[in-house]
Amino acid sequence: MPSYELMVAAALVGALTFYLLFGGADFGAGIWTLFAMGRQGQPQRALIDQAIGPIWEANHVWLIIAVVILFTAFPPAFAVISIRLHIPLTVMLIGIVLRGTAFAIRTHDISSRSDGFTGAPPIWHRIFAWSSLITPTMLGIILGAIASGRASGPTDTIREAFVDPWLAPFSITVGVLATALVAYLAAVYLIMESSDPELRRLFRRRAVMSGILVIILAAIALFLTHDGAPEIYRGLVQTALGRATVVATALVHLAALWAVITARNLLARFLAGVGAVAILWGWALSQYPYLVEPSVTIYDAAPHSTLDILLASLLLGSIVLLPFLFYLYKLFKGDVLLHRHD
Amino acid sequence: MISDLIAARSQMAMSLGFHIVFAVLGIAMPVLMAAAEWRWLKTKDEAYLALAKRWSKGTAILFAVGAVSGTVLSFELGLLWPSFMERAGPVVGPLFGLEGFAFFTEAIFLGIYLYGWSRLPPRAHFIAGLIVAASGTASAMFIVTVNAWMNAPTGFDIVNGEITNVRPLVPFLHPFAFHETLHMLLAAFAATGLLVAGIHAFLLLRHPSNQFHKNALVIALVVGGIPAILQPASGDLIARAVADHQPAKLAAMEAHFVTEAGADFVLFGLPDVSSQTVDYAVVIPHGLSLLLHGNPHAIVPGLDQIPRQDWPPVAVTHVAFQVMVVCGLIMAGMTIWAGWRWWKGRLEEDRWLLRMLLATAPLGFIAIEAGWVVTEVGRQPWIIQGLMRTSQAVTPMPGLWIPMVTFSALYILLAGVVVWAIRRHIAATMAVSPDQGVGRDTA
Asked: Which end of chain B is more exposed for a tag (fewer CB within 10 A), N or C?
């Protein structure tokens, strides 16, 4: 049987996976609002609001589950991350607050209609769009910094302690990659959400462009691991398993692009999701057993009496929650997924 | 320039003070919505359906702000107090875990509730509303239990200054947690119910014959009034628990400087720590001993039993406690007045009652903020009572005034925006007649 520490770490990666696939796509949809301002953007905004409105708050909770697992089971890692990455974490939180508030104001204003019209000032569209962009960028920078090993670097000056851990080409690239990835997921998902051929064409085009961008950025990030994240380089480039993972990930992404272009929408959705998960898991596995490179591992954990209870509550919570979550998606996405794919 | 410790404490206080307003509304508004919907299912009166929809639309904004400001808090625990979380995480983390799942349930069913008016049968929709209310209540119980643990830590041993032998189930059954949770939940329902009652009282003053607002007023008074009447009893319970677990906090609340038998109850007043006196106070002889121990001659330990460096800020704690108690008593009084008018019939025709309901509408939230000041400032200088000082827990990150100022500005802005948005909702109900559907299905 795998150790408790490993099981809890797997649950942590699991929560991040769901957050990427669901919560990430909500941020991605927000990013596309950047190109949907003014009156002519109204149908796109209506599509985005309808797609994420009923589910974004539930999707957002995956992040909270992840952070709770982190601070309950792996307190030393949580402390290092909270201290050394204070700045990007704070910016990410501001993004989260602004995104949620802006979305609520724009969709639940007294004058808001389901066709995308709202009497709330148009500045809220901009705030929604920009905060949707900043949040995944910051989260990507944070994950990149954790992987880079710089979060355990020297602490002699303020710059060394609080800026250098994350202000580096590798983590910045991962930030941009995360942003492109969620925008790509959202575009792929939104193709199916719309019944308007015009909008479908638009998001198909955007899915292709952002998908290509994801592949380019992932390649740059992989290239930068050599100097920027040595442990990841060792894991992904220097082992046969790592190289196989990289090739498989690339193939899945190409297949997803092919499915997008040939309008196999449901398959595209599936493959885009698998491709995104492959990137996340490639990072997680190459970093194993480290939680924060190169000093804190998953074995720097809370006592087993805590992990016991945490695992039990995660299991129990999932048993109760997954049917609820399934019901939510069936209610609001059932017709999209079952009847309208072509 | 303020110290990093003060900046961190201010940021945490401000984040909590902001979040708690929305958390409380998120717990109690679903009960109001569900009550209105239940009345609609029972009576088939469309005015109740319109009311449920109207309330739910405003709640959607409040809930979103509550969700994101709660996320900020879960990270701020580490951003501001990393050493605290490093020690407390393994002991109280599972409570946060269950809170996460309760919040997850709440978010799922809120989505179903807000967007599912036309997708669900009415009864199922009503049940979704009940689940939102129940899971919101459960979230509050888990979070307040964590706070109870900070006030009276249990579930571990200290060996050589390190936390060992962690038993994370023990905090779940914390004796303090029951009192604190009960007090908080009653406060949530009382504050929300009476706030909503005040808003509809205002609208009734403008439109005296409007059935929509009459219905709303009665539901809000029932949901808010019953807890408001029970709250003083719960306050008595919690005060006794504080006297047992945190004598320093109790002494600060009462500005009780010197240990004595037959201690007086000090009402109002401004404590002066240097002279150990309370100016402008109303003194009830032997009142404190009587309240805490049922015996007018019982001994109540004062601050003189506590080393000076372990004193909480006395003036802040005492004044906040007075504010909370006075607000709570006024709310209970308002409920009794309203209940008496309702008993006599024609509740909504007493224009003075309506005016006073409007004037006292915010008191519940003032009491909640003051109550949290009592429990948090009253625990200082400890972040975990008797175990870890707040100053030992603060992050080494310099320049903490920057995030403090940033979040303050952000939250002040958001508070203004939320008030603006809710005002638009309220303004829109002014023109509404009861037979006219006001809710618009957003799905």
From this structure: N
Report CA-CA distances (Å) from B282 to A22, B254, B264, B266, B285. Answer: 59, 12, 10, 6, 10
User: What's the number of domains chain B is made of?
Assistant: 1
Whether B86 sits inside 8 A of A76 (CB atoms) is yes
Whether B43 is in a domain gets the answer yes
The Cα-based distances of A51 to A29, A46, A114, A257, A304 in angstroms read: 9, 8, 11, 22, 41
Residue B227 corresponds to which tokens in the numbers above?
Answer: 């807890």
Chain Cα centroid distance, residue B77: 19
Percent of chain B with pLDDT over 90: 34
Cβ-based neighbour number of residue B366 at 10 Å: 15
Residue B294 lies in a domain: no
> Given this model, what pLDDT does residue A122 score?
84
Provide the pLDDT confidence category of residue A18 given band limits of 50, 70 and 90. Answer: very high
Contact residues, chain A, for B60 at CB < 8 Å:
104, 107-108
322-381 of B, contacting A, C-beta below 8 A: none
Is the backbone of residue A296 left (phi > 0), alpha (psi -120 to 50) or beta?
beta
CA-CA distances (angstroms) from residue B4 to B10, B378, B405, B437? 10, 20, 12, 53
Contacts of A63-67 with CB under 8 Å at 24 or more apart are A63/A15, A63/A19, A63/A23, A63/B71, A64/B70, A64/B71, A64/B74, A64/B100, A64/B103, A65/A15, A65/B97, A65/B100, A65/B101, A65/B104, A66/A12, A66/A15, A66/A16, A66/A19, A67/B74, A67/B75
- Where residue A339 falls among pLDDT bands split at 50, 70, 90? low
The mean pLDDT value of chain B amounts to 87
Please answer whether residues B33 and B129 qualify as being in contact, where contact means their C-beta atoms are separated by less than 8 angstroms: yes
Q: Specify the pairing of strand A290-292 against strand A296-297.
A: antiparallel
Inspect the interface and report whether the beta carbons of A302 and B166 lie closer than 8 Å.
yes
Q: Spell out the residues 6+ positions from residue B377 whose beta carbon is closer than 8 angstroms to its own.
A: B312, B313, B316, B317, B320
Q: Where in chain A are the domains?
A: 4-339
B154 touches A at CB < 8 Å: no
Q: Is residue B293 part of a domain?
A: no
Give the model confidence (pLDDT) of A80-123 as tens digits.
898 889 999 999 999 999 999 999 988 887 777 777 777 778 88
Is A4-339 a domain of CATH 1.20.1630.10?
Answer: yes
- What residues of chain B lie within 8 A of the CB of A310, using their CB? 93-94, 97, 168
pLDDT at B442 over 50: no
CB contact burial A99-129 (16+ within 10 A = b; e otherwise) = bbbbbbbbbbbbebeeebebebeeebbebbb
Please write the tens of the pLDDT for every residue from B213-257. Answer: 888 899 999 999 999 999 999 998 888 888 888 888 888 888 888
Spell out the residues 6+ positions from residue A39 whose beta carbon is closer than 8 angstroms to its own.
none
Question: pLDDT-derived band of residue A340, with 50, 70 and 90 as boundaries?
Answer: low
How far apart are the C-alpha atoms of A324 and B161, rounded to whole Å? 44
Res A208 pLDDT > 90: yes
Which residues, including other chains, have CB under 8 Å from residue A209's CB and lie 6 or more apart?
Answer: none
User: From the list A90, A103, A112, which residue is nearest B79 (CB)?
Assistant: A90
What is the ipTM metric for this complex? 0.88
CA-closest candidate to residue B71, choices A135, A64, A312:
A64
**Are B203 and B163 within 8 A, CB to CB?**
no
Asked if B176 contacts B336 with a C-beta cutoff of 8 angstroms, the reply is no
Distance CA(B74)–CA(B94), nearest Å, equals 14
pLDDT tens digit sequence for A221-250: 999 988 888 888 988 889 999 999 999 999
> What are the distances in angstroms from CA B368 to CA B21, B24, B221, B226, B365?
8, 9, 18, 17, 5
Question: What token pair was written down for A2?
Answer: 């795998």
